[in-house]
Amino acid sequence: MLKRIRNSILVTFLVLTLFTVGCNNAKEPVMEEKATLTGTVEAREIDIRNKIPGEIKTLKVEEGQSVKKGDLLYEIDPKDLIAKKMQAEAGINGAEAQLNKAISGARAQEIAQIEALLAKANAKVQLLQTKYDRLLQLYEAEALPKDKLDDVETELTVAKLDVEAVTAQLSLAQEGANKDDIAALRAQASGAKAVLAEVNLHIQDTKVYAPFDGVVSEVIAKEGELIGQGTPVLTISNYQDKWVEANMDEIKVVDIKIGDEVEFVSKAYPDEPFKGKIVSLNQNPDFAIKKSTNELNEKDTITYAVKINVLADERTLLPGMMVDILLKDKNVIEKDTKENDIKDKDIKNGENL
């Protein structure tokens, strides 16, 4: 009986001892174990470039100035484009006048004028023909040099060619332009209108507006400066639209997914983590860090680009700041789980004694 009591006391003592050791050696909650990853703060930023060459007529903003979407930033002097617009409008008027004339045909007065020219040309031919016939008789009678007869013959030939030309002109005026001529004139008028439309677009491009709300972080060009197409004039930044970019190695990247929320800290706020959400995970490797072949058989470490949007926070985070991203350490989680399983088994074994 006494022996049975001693065994019961021993089992109870063993169970209490294992339970106490397990409690004392218990790890802190898994969420407290963190692995860090270095990232860089980025913000939405855009260079405002000139679409057309020209002189900056007015510059409406300065560095550090806040702007709203649609605010006028600067204006290019449009005087050269206005002159081109007038030329384009004149080209349209001329092309349309020729087209209308071809479609409607020549007027009766124009036809009458051409007929008068033809009659005059025929009269000249008749006069020269009579003169040529008379001189030919004198030449045959050897009373006239050959060169005199040749001069009149040349004049007669030219006069006949004039008659043919005027006759063709009269025929064209009476019949009107053919379909091919009209089509060509239509194309010419359309081309002139396209030139005007392009000039109007360039005139609109002389006024440049802010594409989004932000701050003018840099002014590159000056008022009165002549700049070329594509030249940056100023830079606008939106410091409210910011994110963190980081390169995560292949070991950690398999433990995250788009939509996960993470925390990160900066040197300015080391004890007050910011919150963010993973919005992009590049599936292609970004770069590899070469390691020594003698370093514990380690292979090259491949990294993947991760983008983390910064959730609403009034504290200052500026582009270029370095932050430490806090991640759940998978190795710590697995280690704690295994240790807890072992303790549970030890306790059960003690209960079975």
From TrEMBL:
Key words of the record: Coiled coil
Any one Pfam family match given in the protein's UniProt record, by short name: Beta-barrel_YknX
Gene Ontology, cellular component aspect: plasma membrane
Gene3D superfamilies: 2.40.30.170, 2.40.50.100, Helix hairpin bin
Domain YknX-like beta-barrel: 244-323
SUPFAM superfamilies: HlyD-like secretion proteins
Top-rank taxon: Bacteria
Segments forming domain YbhG-like alpha-helical hairpin: 77-205
Regions annotated as coiled coil: 111-169
Xref: InterPro entries: Beta-barrel_YknX, HH_YbhG-like
Keyword match Coiled coil: yes
Protein name as catalogued: HlyD family secretion protein
Biological source species: Desulfonispora thiosulfatigenes DSM 11270
